[in-house]
């Protein structure tokens, strides 16, 4: 085959400029493969020897791959100049520098053939407009593309083969390091080990990555951040972040497992070009290599699997899973299901604040426009389920109290241990800063001043760490130590303690209860709850559903009976004192006062006096005086003289007179006498005012 490199380039081509395209595949090649880069730049002299006066170098694509998955602005500029007819020849070291995919290579050859531009490499000059040259260039492009695939396949197969033996030294998470002799093992820095173990311990206690973060942040804990790239030898200790916690909990390396190929790349066509994205996780069963018990572990594999299950359950709105205990006012949110449609009940709030939670089957109404299946308030239901839960855990109260005390002591020991490690690290840094300052020439003030500042900062760090150690090591007052045995004796008080959050109650509930099926019997006005306990046991609760307007702050019927029996004979203050002596409380749980008794009587229509009933049996002073036809003052004199029997609830209160007592003949005779005092006569006493 005759090649064009022996022919002279036509003048029409030499009038245009020549372009030297320079490219290397990665930034590492740009930094280390200096000879390849030098040889590509020497093509400028080769273009001038060919007769080109104008030579342009396009090196915008240094460090960029030509596989077609990465944008190459230099190559795009080259194509644009070819389309404008400004280029007479394209010079490259070999075909792989221009492109390693057929799309870009053949597109370039097509444009060169249209504008009669030449392609020049170390082997010669090619005219893409000639069939023979076009065939040869096509073969070179195909070989370049095939070569890339072969190289990549060889490297990946070798890496997979080594990974199956657990010998491929892939990057490892913080807390591990590749030792030269023993392979993968713990980081020798005890402070790094302790903070990793602390994350797992807190998650074991709290069951939430977010709560672990808040707990560690409240204590001022720090997490190591590599300051030397992937070597993991030098660290900067920064405040802990959520990504630090979640990366520790989700990484199987901490469970002693060697994992390779747990993520994959995805290719998409974006604007006509293939785009690859990496880091897409694969399910555990699709991991290429999983070697358990490969190295030392912070937790065992069973605990790692439990952690993944709990993290998945904590995801809000996870399909098919119960909503995790995330706090709020509703205790049963996430565990209640509708007995009619099977959907999970949602919670809504009402009231002025709002502070009243309501469970509803809302999905049929929202999605299909159907009536709601059911709905009921949360206060009575939550209280009843909590009572069932406490009765279930009552046999284990002592063991739970001892376990809580043990965890409390472990938590204190962990805080003290982390503070001591921080202090050791701070003292080492202060000692190192002191040695650096001592080794410096005192006359060199530019350096000595900065070293002195670093030394002072290290000393301040030591002081803060010493204060932290002193605070966690100080003896806790006896009154501040939780009385776990007392909590075991009174579970109800422990459950309702102000320090216990709704989140903690929800977690305890989910540890014992799988699901609760709810239904409402409208005829009987009852809420029916079927509780599915862990282990397969079931129980049922039937609760009275309050009517519209009925609330939970109702006065107990026992207190109402006492008020009704004492209302007409005792004052409100006396009734309140009696209720308090009997240990009764108002509907809001408060003690009784005379004002509260009076307010309740007026609301319930209970009168303080018998005469207020207006049934004709008892009369007031005015009514009695009107019945006898005398004045009120004359009636009072008759009462004081004992002629009329009257009652008072308390001294000074209005008189209450029985209507039947006014029919006494002697009283009527006394009232009927005129001109003499109205008093009862005696058979042994002569009248001073005879009728005659």
Residue ranges: pLDDT <50 for 5 or more in a row? Answer: 1-6, 477-482
Largest sheet descriptor:
5 strands, mixed
Q: Over all CA atoms, what is the radius of gyration?
A: 47 Å
| Helix-strand makeup class | alpha+beta
Number-wise, the strands total 23
Please bin the fraction of helical residues: 40-55%
Give the termini distance in whole angstroms. Answer: 174 Å
Core attributes:
single chain, 692 residues, alpha+beta, five-stranded mixed sheet, four-stranded mixed sheet, 25 helices, elongated, disordered N terminus
What do these coordinates show?
This protein has a five-stranded mixed sheet with strand order 2-1-3-4-5, with helices on both faces. It is α+β, with helices and mostly antiparallel strands and 692 residues long. Helix content is 45%, strand content 17%.
Layout of helices and strands, plus pairs?
Blueprint: H1 11-14, E1 17-24, H2 27-32, H3 34-41, H4 43-49, E2 55-62, H5 73-83, E3 87-91, H6 95-98, H7 102-115, E4 118-121, E5 124-126, H8 131-164, E6 176-179, E7 183-186, H9 190-206, H10 209-218, E8 222-226, E9 235-239, H11 242-250, E10 258-260, E11 263-270, E12 273-281, E13 289-291, H12 301-314, E14 336-338, E15 346-350, E16 356-360, H13 363-368, E17 375-377, H14 379-393, H15 397-439, H16 445-473, H17 484-489, H18 491-495, H19 502-512, E18 513-521, E19 526-533, E20 538-544, H20 557-566, H21 572-581, H22 594-604, E21 618-619, H23 621-628, H24 632-640, E22 646-647, E23 656-658, H25 665-672
Parallel strand pairs: 1-2, 1-3, 3-4, 14-18
Antiparallel strand pairs: 4-5, 6-7, 8-9, 10-13, 11-12, 15-16, 16-17, 18-19, 19-20, 21-23, 22-23
């Amino acid at each position: 085959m005759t090649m064009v490199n022996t022919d002279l380039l036509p003048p029409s081509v030499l009038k245009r400029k020549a372009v030297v395209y320079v490219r290397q595949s990665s930034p590492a090649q740009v930094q280390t493969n200096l000879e390849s880069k030098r040889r590509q730049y020497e093509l400028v002299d080769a273009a001038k020897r060919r007769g080109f006066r104008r030579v342009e170098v396009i090196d915008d694509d240094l460090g960029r791959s030509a596989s077609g998955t990465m944008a190459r602005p230099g190559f795009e500029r080259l194509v644009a100049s070819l389309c404008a007819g400004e280029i007479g020849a394209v010079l490259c070291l070999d075909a792989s520098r221009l492109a390693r995919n057929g799309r870009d290579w053949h597109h370039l050859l097509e444009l060169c053939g249209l504008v009669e531009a030449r392609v020049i490499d170390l082997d010669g000059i090619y005219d893409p407009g000639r069939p023979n040259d076009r065939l040869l260039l096509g073969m070179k492009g195909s070989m370049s593309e095939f070569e890339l695939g072969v190289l990549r396949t060889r490297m990946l197969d070798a890496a997979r083969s080594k990974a199956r033996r657990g010998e491929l030294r892939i990057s490892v998470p913080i807390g591990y390091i590749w030792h030269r002799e023993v392979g993968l093992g713990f980081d020798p820095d005890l402070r790094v080990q302790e903070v990793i173990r602390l994350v797992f311990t807190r998650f074991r206690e709290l069951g939430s990555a977010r709560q672990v973060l808040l707990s560690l942040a409240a204590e001022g804990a720090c997490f190591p951040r590599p300051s030397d790239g992937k070597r993991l030898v030098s660290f900067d200790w920064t405040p802990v972040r959520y990504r630090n916690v979640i990366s520790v909990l989700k990484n199987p390396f901490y469970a002693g497992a060697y994992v390779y190929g747990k993520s994959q790349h995805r290719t998409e066509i974006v604007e006509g070009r293939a785009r690859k994205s990496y880091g897409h996780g694969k399910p555990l069963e699709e991991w290429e290599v999983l070697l358990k018990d490969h190295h030392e572990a912070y937790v065992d594999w069973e605990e790692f699997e439990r952690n993944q299950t709990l993290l998945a359950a904590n995801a809000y709105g996870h399909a098919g899973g119960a909503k995790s205990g995330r706090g709020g006012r509703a205790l049963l949110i996430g565990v209640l299901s509708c007995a009619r449609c099977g959907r999970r009940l949602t919670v809504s709030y009402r009231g002025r604040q709002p502070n009243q939670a309501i469970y509803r089957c809302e999905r049929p109404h929202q999605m299909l426009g159907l009536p709601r299946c059911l709905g009921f308030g949360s206060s009575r239901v939550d209280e009843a389920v909590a009572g069932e839960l406490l009765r279930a855990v009552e046999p284990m109260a002592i063991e739970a109290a001892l376990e809580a005390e043990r965890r409390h002591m472990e938590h204190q020991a962990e805080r003290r241990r982390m503070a001591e490690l921080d202090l050791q690290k701070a003292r080492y840094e202060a000692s190192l800063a002191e040695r650096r300052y001592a080794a410096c020439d005192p006359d060199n003030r530019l350096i000595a001043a900065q070293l002195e500042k670093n030394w002072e900062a290290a000393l301040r760090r030591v002081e803060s760490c010493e204060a932290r150690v002193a605070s966690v090591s100080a003896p806790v007052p006896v009154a501040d130590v939780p009385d776990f045995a007392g909590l075991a004796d009174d579970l109800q008080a422990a459950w309702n303690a102000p320090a216990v959050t709704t989140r903690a109650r929800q977690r305890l509930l989910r540890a014992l209860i799988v699901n609760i099926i709810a239904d409402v019997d409208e005829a009987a006005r009852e809420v029916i709850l079927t509780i599915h306990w862990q282990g397969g046991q079931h129980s049922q609760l039937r609760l009275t559903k309050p009517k519209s307007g009925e609330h939970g702050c109702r006065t107990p019927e026992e207190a109402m009976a006492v008020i009704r029996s004492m209302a007409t004979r005792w004052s409100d203050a006396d009734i309140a004192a009696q209720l308090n002596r009997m240990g009764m409380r108002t509907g809001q749980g408060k003690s009784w006062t005379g004002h509260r008794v009076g307010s309740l009587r007026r609301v319930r229509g209970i009168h303080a006096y018998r005469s207020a009933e207006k049934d004709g049996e008892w009369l007031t002073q005015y009514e009695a005086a009107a019945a006898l036809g005398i004045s009120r003052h004359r009636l009072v004199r008759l009462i004081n003289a004992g002629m009329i029997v009257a009652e008072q609830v308390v001294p000074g209160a209005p008189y209450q007179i029985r209507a039947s007592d006014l029919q006494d003949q002697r009283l009527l005779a006394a009232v009927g006498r005129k001109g003499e005092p109205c008093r009862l006569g005696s058979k042994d006493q002569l009248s001073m005012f005879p009728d005659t």
